[in-house]
Protein 1
Amino acid sequence: MKKIRNIISILMLMVLVSACGRQSKDAEGILLSSQKEDTENEKQSEDIEQEHTEAGTEGESLIYVQVSGAVKCPGVYGLAEGSRVFHALELAGGVTKGADPTSLNQAERVTDGQMIQVLTAEEAAQREESGKAQPEDDGKVNLNTADKEELMTLTGIGDAKAQSILDWRMEHGGFAQIEDLMKIEGIKEGVFSKIRDSVKVR
């Protein structure tokens, strides 16, 4: 009888020890799970804060331009400062099949609030014909529509310089401003100062 009691006591002790062990492991598991969750929450918070910071920085440097005419998705687009016209055209889905990409200077830097209009080939041809058919009312030579003979009427512009102007216009898609003339080899400030009041780009 005494042996039976001893055996029962030993079994009960083993059960208690086993139960305590399980409780200890469960508590440890809960603690580890809690620590892992806290770490994940902290990381997520840091990521969100970084996203807000980056968004704020980007927002401060954005400028907005309106792209219209012969593009696939006309509209207002935000670009980083220092972007070029061709960046805006890419955001607008690119030019349409009937567009005349030489109707504007795609390398030109865009400015906040600028409107970029892409002409169709037909519109560009009509504008060029209109420029030729109607003499310049103000007497100025349009650098973007003038032919070689018109360019040679300018002081200091002979056959070679006139051809250089036409070549530059073809390569760069036109003149954005009259000062672009000084980017052409052979036309420096001296020549430019003589003709600046006799030319225009629009």
Protein 2
Amino acid sequence: MSDPLDRIAAALDRLAPAPALAPDWTASAYVWDTVPDRLVAVPQVNRTSLNLLVGIDRARDTLLANTRRFADGLPANNALLWGARGMGKSSLVKAVHGELEATDLKLVELQREDIHTVGRLLHLLRDAPHRFVLYCDDLSFSHDDAAYKSLKAVLDGGVEGRPDNVIFYATSNRRHLMPRDMIENERSSAINPAEAVEEKVSLSDRFGLWLGFHACDQDAYLAMIRGYCDAYDVSIDAETLRSEAIEWQATRGSRSGRVAWQFFCDLAGRKGVRL
């Protein structure tokens, strides 16, 4: 009889995720991997220097001050960076972490599809001797997605709640993390429309900081490119830069920090400058 029981026990062990092992905390950034649960060190973070992020001064200063307070052990808020695509939301999170890297602040990236495992990740971080910015890029939920409930509980409202040594930053194109038509559908079809909508948008209320990002104008777009040129010693006269940059954004049909960087990469390549 012991042989069937052993096989059943072995099968259950394979189904249940093994406890995550505490990582070597020598790196400054990690990515959460769930197959199996582990934190994978990132040798070099892909980020832009904080002083190269142009046109988002208020959001930059607010997030930097909030993160600095958290790194110093003072009260700080979870932050939702929302708004126009390509305007530096994720770049700002990584740049702020880079600015405060000397304080031993760690950055942990959580993928959107792994939100339901956030409780397991926080359990691992809770007892670590460091402070962590838990970061999720492009966070949003569809009409049939219940994973947001897991996040609501750990951000605010659960028995354990968010550990004191963890703060949560998310970026999204949506202010309430859900499509407008989904919210409107709940309002029109629910027995109690107000309650249905409140349930859906209450996740965004868990963020004490809402930082809005909006499409940039032409002057800001050109200033971004000029800043990159100065930082990387790419020589180009002002009139040529202006005409080429405007033509580039016209072919893309949009104007943003991402488009500015893409133009600069093309320009640097043509100039033979390595980045």
Protein 3
Amino acid sequence: MKEFMDKDFLLETETAKDLYHNHAENLPIIDYHCHLDPKMIADDHRFRSITELWLGGDHYKWRALRANGVDEKYITGKETSDWEKFEKWAETVPYTMRNPLYHWTHLELRTAFGINERLNPETACEIFDKCNDMLQNNPDMTARGLMRKYGVEVVCTTDDPIDSLEHHKRLRDEGFEIKVLPTWRPDKAMAVEKPAEFAAYIAMLAQAADMPIDNFDDFLKALQKRHDFFEEMGCRLSDHGISEFYAEDYTEDEIKNIFAKAAKGETVAPEEEAKFKSRMLEVFGEMDAESGWTQQFHYGPIRNNNSKMMAKLGPDTGFDSIGEFNTASSCAKFLDRLNSKGKLGKTILYTINPSANEVIATMIGNFQDGSTPGKIQFGSGWWFNDQIDGMTRQMNALSTQGLLSRFVGMLTDSRSFLSYPRHEYFRRVLCNLVGKDIENGEIPYTGYEKKRVEKMIEDICYNNAKEYFKF
């Protein structure tokens, strides 16, 4: 029986061990999509406790706690202490076996705090005290210190077009050695299905762009002005959180009329919403292509399913799920529209539904044009899929239908400064996958091919992202 999570964790063959330890383990991290708070980085935030660092805002853990019968006051409640919340998590951890949270929990304790004991009710108090002592007294256990500890080279946060990016500017002016770059996330600029909020957003955009917005043309000019500002601040990616792709036919007059209705707070019909979003996705795609950015599409979730808890806690609190959307044809139509105009830039498609893996793996092949290796990417296993099975299924689909060798690899997609071990997790899964193929005689591992395999591992873990994004 193997020891739990030893140095060869998830590595089932000698070749896998060699690939990981000699070609993947110590490479820097390019975290090109996350939800870290740039203010916390700029302030070099020191966490008051492991609870703030670990459990604050982590809806993965919140879902597990609820499933284990823990009262909400110990999850998001303000009336309970950090210790009480941590104690409930320690009680829950032994029940998470076979959930990736069990591995992530212990990887994070080990890599950040040097703690090899397993977290459970018997060890909770000791681990809580040790973590808190390090967080309070170790000068390197801050937001920036944790990023340095994990060998992070680049971080791309997620930012609305109206954001000031003041904290990114502070970091740049200060000369912080880790690049912290913004990512353009214009979802609210498409959300005409919420007309009151959309009207308020237009006013905030006008203020941010320092110009009046009286019509749709002004709206586009203001967005372009903010896009240019993001470019000046080092932005190289956009990101779109959508349920499905939009590629409806429309006329420009229809779009102007829909905008005018929503800007006045009037309700728009579902077909009008789809047409407006179709137009805006094209607009943003063209902007990105002209700037040489990479556009990312995270599609497929059903969000905020629990209306009672949505009213109580708001979005992003652990009440989302995998959706089923028949969106392949609209995705193809959207990409083709941009491609036909010569405006299809580098693109990453992420699906939350693993049943669509082969759909995406074949879709990206339709629009590779020879200009950039892996120009259209199938993004790594996302959200409910960033675990062993999900990562493996994503890489298998990409391998059989495209070129795994050109894959830009893993990201955290996280709000936590302790999520970087997910890169380690991914690298172990990758090396194990390739190592087993080698040992099964499916991939040669001598001469030129041995060097190619080793380079492929290094590329997927680091080099491909570095070259693709050109930070």
